[in-house]
Design goal:
Radius of gyration: 14 Å
Distance between the termini: 39 Å
Structural class: mainly alpha
Largest sheet: none
Shape: elongated
Strand content: under 5%
Order of helices and strands: HHHH
Amino acid sequence: MQEFTRPPVDDTGINERIARRVRDLRTLRGYTLDALAARSGVSRSMISLIERASASPTAVVLDKLAAGLGVSLAGLFGG
């Protein structure tokens, strides 16, 4: 029986795509970091880390950001 080896996962690409998308949606709507924090329940500092691709947000955080930005979760990925 042949053993399956999974290739290594590169989180950098996805974090950068999320960072760009969150920042673009936030600025498109005219929200400051503080405004998005208030709308989403995600701290200003966490949003800043996400927008700089310095954090790997959990699904819960992504869902809160999506709601705060008025998009679906898929919308954060361009869908």
